[in-house]
Structure formats: C-alpha cells, structure tokens
C-alpha cells in the first residue's frame, strides 16, 4: 500500500502539485492522465524522491518515505523503479550492461565501478531481456536500438532492481503507435505476471482506459477524478476539464492507441 | 484573401517594430563590448610596454637570432661524419645524449599527464555543477583546482627541487599538479555539457554518487576527457622541456646550458628535436582518439 498524504510541490510561486492525497493498493495498475503541465511528472518524481516534496508525506507500507536519507533512500529508489520518456539508458554502453546497472543498489560499489558482475547476474539479465524478445541484442550498443526496444531495455533494467512499484513517466510519448503498444503491453505484463504496482503517466485517455484498473485525472496540480475507467465517461471528461474529449487530446504529443 | 491581409497587418507592423528595436539594442551591445575590449587592449599594451615602436625595433633582432642559431650546412659534406663541418651529423653531434634526454622528457610528460589525470578527472565530477554532491563541495573543489593550476609549474618545480633534490622527480610532480588543476577544470566543463538523463536514471535506480558518476556521466564525457588529456600530454612535453631550467630533469637542463653559453647551432638542433617529438605525440593521439570515439 502506497499512501500520498497532502503531497505538494512548489517551484517558486508556481504550485506544480497541490495537496494530492491518494492510497494505492499493491498490485494495481494506475493511469495518471492530464495535459502537459498538469503536474503528473512532478507527482511521479516525488514518489521516487527525484523531486523533493514541499509539503506532505509519502508512506509505503507504514514506512515514511519522505524522511528517508542515504542508503535507506537509495533502497526505496531501487524498490520503486522509474521509467522515463527519454528511456535514460547509457547510450555508449551495451544493452546487457545497461540492464545489469539495475543491480547497482544490491551489490558492492567497488566491484560495480569495475563492472565485475557475476555470471549469475548476467544470466538473470539475459533472462529478463529474453522475456521482452531482446536477448539477441544484448551485446549491441544501446543507441543502435529503436525507441521501442530502448524502452523495453529500460523496463528490463527496472525489473533487475527487484522493485515492488514501477513508475512510468510518459513512457510512450516519444514512440510511434506500434512501439507504444508493445511498451504498454510490457508494462501490463509486469503488472500481471510480476504483481508489481504500476503507476503510469499518459497523455491519452484511450490508452489509460485500455490498460489501467484505475484512472487518476489531474488538472493544475490537483486530482480531479479518481476511479475505474468505466466511470470516466465522455461527460465526466467534459465536467472535469471543461472541454470535450477530442479537444482534451489536442496538443497531446502522441496519437491515441487504437484498441 | 485581402481581408486576411488586412487583419494580419497590425501583427506585421508590431512584429517589425519589435524586430527593429531588438536589432538596435543588439547593435548597441556589440558596440559597447567592442569599445570596452579596445580600451582594455590599450591599457594592457601600455602597462606591459608593448609599444609598436619597440616591437618594430625588436623584430629584426629576432630574425638575427634565428639566423645565428641556424646551422651552417654545406651540400658537399651534408652526409659526412661528425668530424666534418657543415654536415648534418656535425649539427646533431650529440644526438645520442639528446635523444636520451628527450626520451626522459617525454617520459616525464607522460607520467605527469597520467598522474594529473588520476588526480584531476575524479575531481572534475566534484567541480561540475550537475554532478557536485553539494554547493559547498562544488565551490571548494573549483577553488582548489584554481589554486593547483594558477601557480606556474616552474614555481612548483623550484619547491620540489628544494624538497626532493635535483632530478626528474621534481619536474614530474610539478607538472602533474599543474595538469590536475587544468584537466580538472576542462573535464568539469565536459561533464557539465552531458545529457543528465542517464545519470538521473541511475539515481532513480538507487545508485550512489560514485556509481551514478561512473555509469551515468563518465561514459558520456569520455571523448572530450580523452581529448583534453592528450592535449595536456602535448602541453606537458613542452613544459617538461622548459622545467629542466630549474634543475628538474630532462632536456631542459641541456637547453638552458646551450642557450646561456650561446651554442647557437645546438639550440636549433634541440628545438627541432622537441618539435619532432610533439609532432609524434600529435599523430599518435589523433589515432588513439579515433579508435576510442568508434569504440563502445
């Protein structure tokens, strides 16, 4: 159970996220929707503590995440893996090494700095890559892969952290529709097969409706809708955002996924 | 069509006005900057006594000096032995000693560059604004690097000659410290120019500072870091050939001797050898750079 209690983040005079209170049970697949600047990214980054909250608390299974420091904080970060819009792989390194980097928190620093990974860790990384049909590309440099492949490598790296939560910040915003589908399927598999809680930021309502158990809609830093996809009808969208659903999509960077 | 043009016109007028005023202020800024630079140029020329008249008077003398140090070579005896005047062998009659001293100098430069890089490159991550663990560490390491490189290496050499005695060790340490300061700054700037995404990915995965720098920053900045280190090697070869002036080993001691005793032909011979060595390093480092750039 992940609880956000009055989570707020201000950048100067601007409030990016305003008093968000949520409870997310383990194993849920949650879609966070909203237009650019609604505060989705800031919210996700605060959960991983890449961005410090200005106010409020994050509590995971009774532990106060907002108070963590040093090794405890790094442990929390390993526990809630993060997927980025720009993949954030190390382009110059091969795919296998990129995936192995997901182990950093769990192994001694000195041997990591010299890339002394064990055969067991390599086997684990290769098995994870194989799950996403990328075992053949293991020794290629990350920058030789397509965007969709890179994002799946990022998911494999995240799984190596042995996380319990996976946060995905606009994971398909830089991908074409076909690759976007492949990546969303991968996230759904992680949720189904590994039992991870997945919280994913999305531009498109259709994508969220198709894959998520629960949708949280944000506008100007606030949660304006929280419920199952079936409840987020066209009328509710109009109520919440004051515009029709297709207008909501205007300005969104990615095309909708067609079911 | 004409209606659209009519409604667009105020926008064009406003845009053109904004463009004109932006251009005016840009031109004014350029003129002010030019004026400031020329005033600074005149003041510094005046203070450092770099008058055109003195320059004009001195220039021919440089030519004279070069004419003096040029060897007196004769076609007839160009390839004769060391005993014959006008031969190449006569010009480079101490080539064996000089080659040995030059090899010592090159080794001094190499080991000093290596030591400097070992000290300077890790410090670059402390002194880069994006990877520095805190503002305090950032400022402290910046100031420290400045201190290392602002003191001329010849001054360090004097101190180390006093401490460790006459010989190459003093020179190596002096150049290494200066290199650490220079490389630290340049590499810090290379690190500041990287894309921060991969490092953020490492941090988000629970990596500590060492790990996030090692995997999220170093691979991205490796090319410029290598370039700077190789350039530093070249610069250090030059430093190492001068640092011998204060007794810190290498070809410098010999160069100092032949200059002060006015052994003109030997000056040109030694300078030629140093230039040759720099060319060698340049060619080799170019190849190394290409290989690393294409490598994973």
From TrEMBL, chain A:
The gene is phnC. CDD domains: ABC_PhnC_transporter. Residues 2-245 form the ABC transporter domain. InterPro entries: AAA+_ATPase, ABC_transporter-like_ATP-bd, ABC_transporter-like_CS, ABC_transpr_PhnC, MetN_ABC_transporter-like, P-loop_NTPase. PROSITE patterns: ABC_TRANSPORTER_1, ABC_TRANSPORTER_2. The keyword Cell membrane applies. This is Phosphonate ABC transporter ATP-binding protein. GO terms for cellular component: membrane. The lineage of its organism: Bacteria, Pseudomonadati, Pseudomonadota, Alphaproteobacteria, Acetobacterales. It holds the Pfam family ABC_tran. It comes from Plastoroseomonas arctica. NCBIfam families: ABC_phnC (TIGR02315). One of its GO terms (molecular function) is ATP hydrolysis activity. Coiled coil: none annotated. SUPFAM superfamilies: P-loop containing nucleoside triphosphate hydrolases. Keywords: ATP-binding, Cell membrane, Membrane, Nucleotide-binding, Translocase, Transport.
TrEMBL record, chain B:
GO terms for molecular function: ABC-type phosphonate transporter activity. CDD domains: TM_PBP2. It is a multi-pass membrane protein. It comes from the Bacteria. InterPro entries: MetI-like (IPR000515), MetI-like_sf (IPR035906), PhnE/PtxC (IPR005769). Residues 102-285 form the ABC transmembrane type-1 domain. Its main location: membrane. Keywords: Cell membrane, Membrane, Transmembrane, Transmembrane helix, Transport. GO terms for cellular component: plasma membrane. The chain crosses the membrane at residues 29-47, 75-93, 105-128, 154-177, 235-252, 267-285. It is found in: Cell membrane. PANTHER family: ABC TRANSPORT SYSTEM PERMEASE PROTEIN P69 (PTHR30043:SF1), PHOSPHONATES TRANSPORT SYSTEM PERMEASE PROTEIN (PTHR30043). Belongs to the binding-protein-dependent transport system permease family. This is Phosphonate ABC transporter, permease protein PhnE. It comes from Plastoroseomonas arctica.
